[in-house]
Amino acid sequence: MLTNQKIEAALAELEESEKVPLISELKDPDFGGQISSVGVERAEDLLKLATCFSVAPISGFYVGAIAVGKSGKLYLGANMEFQGVPLSASLHAEQSAILNAWMHEEREVVAVHVSETPCGHCRQFMRELSNPSNLKIHCKGQTFQIEDLLPGAFGENRKKGHGLLDSTGTNFGHDKIKPKTQAQLAINAAQLSYAPYSHAPEGFVAQCLDGHSFSGRVAESIAFNPSVSGVVVALNQRNLSSRRTIAITACTQTKLATALNCPLAQAKAIIKHIADASVDEVQM
After folding, report:
1. Domain extent at residue 120
2. Does pLDDT of 257 surpass 70?
3. Is there a catalytic annotation at residue 94?
4. How confident is the model at residue 152 (pLDDT cuts 50, 70, 90)?
């Protein structure tokens, strides 16, 4: 559990003038995993804080990451595991941080700091960004580029404007409007999906007991397995927020009616083990 004591210990290396506004930011009821009170030069020093958000009931292996946006904002990331479902549902810290930036509408990540050496799964996932040659990956005092970590990578680089963060999504006949229902919120999320390989957008919404909702959408990888489903993206946003312990009471999953793959079974399996809530399906 994330406690004030853990936060204080994780921020021990920061100056008091940096620590006070950061703690205030973390305690804000609307905190959502984005940090703006600390400069990018301190990103490495926030890895202990990011690791505090790790949820690893299976492996006991806790990893933190910080994505640095071109905007100058920092985005927390941490690995997240789910009991009762296949290990492939797990989210890695680098993915968590990049997806956090994506959900905050960051258009480019210029650097990723991570507390452990990126695995091949994450290296392949990071190639979905449209700037892999310029992305700096910092780990344990060393700096790498994707080409250093993943020689002979599978697939071609994404063109500018067509990567995970900077693609525009697709309108599938549903207007993106101010949501009045969970179904509309899920449809809005689906239309911002990154699904260049299956062409099957999906959205997921988890509503909490306090009425706040967390949205997620699919983020595909050309290698398929590093892809992240909408339910996991939504739960990542919840985990990195100040509402991480508030119970989930209702969920909505949406998918394209003609999709060859179906995310509903995985969504139901994951939610079953973390909340007493049903998952309604809406087809587009």
Report:
1. 4-149
2. yes
3. yes
4. confident
H/E element holding 114? strand 109-114
User: Do residue 46 and residue 143 come from a single domain?
Assistant: yes
| Strand 248-255 to 279-283 pairing | parallel
pTM: 0.95
H or E element at residue 184: helix 182-190
Residues 123 and 233: their CA atoms lie apart, in Å, by 18
Q: How far apart are the first and last CA of the chain?
A: 38
CA distances from 14 to 39, 169, 240 (A): 11, 39, 21
Those residues whose C-beta lies under 8 Å from the C-beta of residue 263, and which sit 6 or more positions away, are: 202, 204, 218, 229, 230, 231, 253, 255
* Together in a domain, 14 and 86: yes
Structure tokens at 35: 């940090």
CA dist 260 and 199 (Å) reads 9
pLDDT per residue over 165-184, tens digit each? 999 876 655 555 566 799 99
> Among the options 94, 106, 108, 128, which is catalytic?
94
What's the whole-number mean pLDDT along residues 197-207? 96
Residue 43 within any structural domain of the chain: yes
In a domain, 86, yes or no: yes
Q: Are strands 213-217 and 74-78 parallel, antiparallel or unpaired?
A: unpaired
